[in-house]
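stuck on whats below:

***
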Amino acid sequence: MTDFAKTGGTLLDDRRISDETFITLLVASVAVGLFLVASILVPNFFQLLNMLNLVTNNWAVISLGVGVSFLLVSGNFDLSVGGIVALSGVLAVWFAQSTGGANALSSGFGFPTWLAIICALGGALAIGGLNALFVVRLRVPSIIVTLGTMLLARGIAQVITHGSQRNTNLPDDFGVLGNLTMFGTSLKLPVVLMAILLIVAVFIEKKTVFGRLTYWIGANPVAARLSGIDNARHVTYLYLFSAAIAGTVGILLASEFKSGFSNRGTLMEFDALVIALLGGVAITGGFGSVMGMFFGALILAVVTSAATGLILSPDWQFILKAVAVFLAIVTQTWALARRNR
């Protein structure tokens, strides 16, 4: 009997797109729809510059969303990224500041900028390693561990800055990375790095064994382990990867503003989680995509930008974010159930 006959006279089952692609397309459609609605409601919203700003102004959260999405797919949380952003930025400034400043906040280690950046990344990776230690070896739930390390990282940043910020006695080249424009345009290096990160992440997710293992571990960790997959090592790599991204984001932000601010990155961990959920990444693991996360970020950016254009208070913006996440999860669940019925 032919495959055509076996499927009841249709080849639909052989040609239908995967559930992940279906959800990604659904999220992309919602992002476009919301943008068109906002363009009707908000004056001057439908402009090329505004479209670009929706991405460029959110490069930091989108970058963090890559690491958070990979961990969510593996069945783990990472709520420490906001604290790592603050810590790495503060460390980079502290290490780069000249010695013998006028006061404690203007004195540092006097390292060359490149060495200060490497040391700051080392601090970020240390937090990632601590996450992996407690989650993988001690088997503490990841949501509890990463909440704790978020507070730890931000607390260390608070101590180093005395609850304020460090922004003096820095070498001139410290502000280059965060403000370097590319290709003769106003496009800054951090935005280009975000785009490269997205491309690399999609490639890893779709075309490599590492990406497939991430899905298998999230879908069924017991079966993955029995199949010979080293779950512990894989999740450790994911936490280090997420911490490296957060550390890089923190350093680039510190370079952009030429300051190490202990409150920088506040609530970024929750925004990164929100855009992942908006993009269809399953909170239970085993399902989702980086491109879905990206379109989820666009949804959040459109909602936030439209709320600002409508002169809604920040309090209402929090409510809109909550409603958007709730509706997105309900809609995605309903769409998948109906599709697979």
